[in-house]
Amino acid sequence: MTHLILSDLVASVSELKKHPMQIINQAKGKPIAILNRNQPVFYCIPPEVFESIMEKLEDDELVRIVAARSNEREIEVSIDDL
Question: If you write DSSP's letter for every residue of the chain in order, what string do you get?
């Protein structure tokens, strides 16, 4: 079975176990596909990349909420009432 690897860099689980920081440092901030028996099992990504992904997912969710509520009836409220 073939698998799409979404990274230019790969390392085996065994390599990662033996030298985790060496593998991460060699990647220089790029994602690493971690392989087990030549199949990708997970991706190792820097915290900044993970945070960026999470922010984009949150933004997408907010866009879906706004779109779902765009046809709802508006209710006028005075700031003094709050």
Answer: -------SEEEEHHHHHH-HHHHHHHHTT--EEEEETTEEEEEE--HHHHHHHHHHHHHHHHHHHHHHHTTSPP----GGG-
